[in-house]
Amino acid sequence: MNRETMIKKIIGETAEKLGFYYKGCERNGSVTDYTFKSRKESDYEIDQSIWIIIFDHYMEGWDIRLTLDSKKRVEGCNLIKSKFKEGFSGDCWYFKDEEELKEILYLFQNFLEENGQKIFHDNKLPEDEVRETNERHWRLYQEHETLNETYRKLYGMEDTKFTAKLIRRISDLLMEKKDANYGDVKELLLGMAAIYGDQLIRRRGGEWMWKDDSKSCIVKGMEMYSYCIMPLYTVEGYWKRKKDDYLYLLDDFRNYPTETVI
């Protein structure tokens, strides 16, 4: 049984009961995302997701993460008791073979059955907040060039050659504001998302795109190492985690797991 079939079989029925459908899997470099999406009744209902993410490991084996994404992001591996070791990629577990993967998926299934409904219900955004989020994504799509230029100049980030240094600077700026109210940092987050997306394209190729089905702004690469990233989601998610780990942000810039990003 391949991994996608296994995930659909073990997680699918529970996800369906929670109001989710299996959208599919997508591989971005060293990362494979298996995504379940909520069934929305209107464009202004929040887009909720269950992500099972598998990372190719630098050594033998893999890392796996369960993310419940809504108003807040909940990392399942941080809440489930298990024998599995913490993975290299953060908020995840390490597994070495398909038997361990199967065991982990049943732990995920049990967690979703016991906690999924409450987590997604409690984190459902009101309509006006969903509308604002959609508008912010649209603004980033429309104004990313101006935002990128403005915020690079404002924070002395005009050097595009050294990606790791740039991402370290973005991380530092976000962590300096980690205790601020969202309303006080949302313009900064938008500017950092524009820089993040611009640097992705400079390093990995690709282009800015608008996804009408999810009302989101993405950067997508179609070269040998394809990828699809939502810069605003990534930057805001990092700020909300309040955890200083710039390598987490830098991972999107790798075309393969062992690549060194300078």
Keywords, separated by commas or semicolons:
262 residues, 2 domains, 3-stranded antiparallel beta sheet, 7 helices, 9 strands
Please characterize this protein's 3D structure.
It is a single chain. The chain is an alpha+beta fold. It folds into 2 domains: 3-123; 127-253, no CATH class. 46% of the residues lie in helices and 20% in strands. The protein has 7 helices and 9 strands; from the N terminus they run αββββββααααβββαα. It has helices spanning 3-17, 98-122, 127-154, 163-176, 182-204, 231-241, 246-250; strands at 20-28, 31-38, 49-56, 62-69, 73-75, 93-95, 207-211, 216-221, 227-229. Strands 1, 2, 3, 4, 5 and 6 form a 6-stranded antiparallel β-sheet that branches. Strand 1 (20-28) and strand 2 form a beta hairpin. The chain is globular and about 50 Å long. The model has no long low-confidence stretch (mean pLDDT 89).
